């Protein structure tokens, strides 16, 4: 009995240690001191059975077992999945930082990586026009979660994404996809992520639900901050590089006075540039908003003609990008840039 109690004490200490450190299960070297103690204590088969039984509870802890491999099309969605999935989910973003989702084509290395993924979180609305390649690459096993389902989408010709052949997608499969820039919609996206992960991994459903609720509370606070700050803007109209900010504008009472590239990859004509410059002067717009995923040259030409500044909004962010390493940070960064031109 004394040996059993000693073994139990050692195992409890091991569990507590791993919980606190959140160790990677592959780093077995850090476990050696514990297992050496266990080995010295086990004297017979019954003790060995007790140890095996106690070890069987280990997968209930985040630091044991395999994490669910998950993919997200863009970084803001990957961050949402990470906030909900925590220790039980391994997520990677398909589109790398700095790349435009409108012209992106998955590389072979990404196609290989996606073959081991169980679920793919995507925006939909025509953004991931290449997603069928993923589905075929996994033999149809990939679970696709379309986060724009059920969202009041903004439709219009100005939102068409052009494929490399230069032909727009059909009207039925297309809408403005930039839904995550409305924090209220982002909350609904998080709820869908919680539901999907809980369904895939029912054992840890309470964990996902708890983290999801906490994250939604953070988004509630963010939404109020943006709503209050945009309410103070003296200028409500803006000119952007492409129609990324229409959901943000709809939610927070702003209005587009012009779009430089109504179709990503299609530069405006001289007549369109002239019209945008005129609209800037008529509406008293103080800045042209460019984006790091696109060449700002045309925006700079328009800003020079209108005698205003070019400021950089960023709908995507990404790891290692200053002030934009999480979805919440991305939104705070953009609010800060908007303040410069609209207060």
Characterization of the model:
This protein has helices at 2-21, 32-41, 45-55, 75-85, 108-114, 131-137, 183-200, 205-230, 246-252, 270-283, 297-306, 327-342, and strands at residues 68-72, 89-93, 119-122, 143-146, 237-240, 255-259, 287-290, 309-312. The strands form 2 sheets. A 4-stranded parallel β-sheet has the order 2-1-3-4, covered by helices on one side. A 4-stranded parallel β-sheet has the order 6-5-7-8, sandwiched between helices. The chain is of the alpha/beta class. It is built from 12 helices and 8 strands. The model is unreliable at 17-35, 42-48, 50-64 and 158-172 (pLDDT under 50). The protein has 3 domains: 2-60, no CATH class; 68-225, Nitrogenase molybdenum iron protein domain (Rossmann fold); 232-342, Nitrogenase molybdenum iron protein domain (Rossmann fold, 3-Layer(aba) Sandwich), CATH 3.40.50.1980. Helices cover 46% and strands 10% of the residues.
Condensed summary:
The chain has 343 residues and is of the alpha/beta class. Helix content is 46%, strand content 10%.
Write down the CATH class of the largest domain.
Alpha Beta
Oligomer: single chain
Instruction: List low-confidence stretches.
Output: 17-35, 42-48, 50-64, 158-172
Describe the strand arrangement of the main beta sheet, using strand numbers.
2-1-3-4
The amount of helix comes to: 40-55%
How many domain units?
3
**DSSP, total strands:** 8
By secondary-structure content and strand pairing, the structural class works out as alpha/beta
The CATH homologous superfamily of the largest domain is called: Nitrogenase molybdenum iron protein domain
């Amino acid at each position: 009995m004394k040996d059993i109690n000693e073994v139990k004490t050692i195992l409890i200490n091991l569990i507590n240690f791993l919980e606190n450190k959140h160790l990677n299960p592959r780093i077995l070297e850090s476990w050696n001191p514990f297992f050496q103690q266990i080995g010295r204590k086990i004297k017979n088969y019954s003790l060995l059975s007790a140890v095996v039984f106690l070890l069987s509870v280990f997968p209930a802890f985040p630091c044991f077992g395999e994490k669910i491999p998950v993919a997200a099309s863009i970084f803001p969605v990957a961050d949402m999945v990470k906030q909900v999935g925590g220790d039980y989910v391994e997520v990677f973003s398909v589109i790398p930082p700095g790349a435009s989702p409108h012209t992106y084509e998955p590389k072979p290395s990404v196609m290989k990586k996606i073959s081991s993924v169980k679920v793919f979180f995507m925006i939909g609305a025509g953004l991931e026009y290449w997603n069928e390649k993923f589905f075929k690459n996994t033999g149809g096993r990939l679970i696709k979660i379309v986060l724009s389902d059920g969202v009041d989408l903004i439709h219009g010709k100005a939102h068409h994404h052009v494929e490399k052949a230069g032909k727009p997608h059909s009207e039925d499969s297309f809408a403005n996809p930039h839904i995550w820039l409305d924090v209220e919609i982002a909350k609904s996206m998080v709820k869908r992520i919680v539901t999907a992960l809980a369904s895939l991994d029912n054992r840890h459903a309470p964990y996902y639900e708890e983290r999801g609720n906490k994250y939604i509370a953070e988004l509630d606070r963010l939404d109020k901050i943006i709503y209050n700050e945009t309410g103070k803007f003296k200028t409500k109209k803006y000119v952007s590089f492409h129609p990324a900010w229409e959901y943000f504008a709809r939610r927070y009472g702003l209005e587009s006075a012009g779009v430089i590239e109504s179709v990503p990859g299609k530069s405006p004509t001289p007549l369109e540039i002239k019209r945008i410059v005129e609209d800037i002067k008529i509406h008293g717009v103080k800045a042209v908003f460019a984006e790091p995923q696109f060449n700002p040259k045309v925006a700079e030409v328009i800003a020079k003609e209108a005698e205003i500044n070019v400021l950089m909004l960023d709908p995507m962010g990404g790891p290692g990008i200053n002030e934009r390493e999480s979805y919440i940070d991305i939104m705070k960064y953009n609010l800060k840039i908007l303040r410069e031109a609209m207060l």
